[in-house]
Amino acid sequence: QVQLVESGGGLVQAGGSLRLSCAGSGRSFTNYAMGWHRQAPGKQRELVACITAGGSTNYADTVKGRFTISRDSTKNTVYLQMNSLKPEDTAVYSCAVDSQFLKVLAGFADYWGQGTQVTVSS
Question: Which of the four pLDDT bands, split at 50, 70 and 90, describes residue 105?
Answer without folding.
Answer: very high
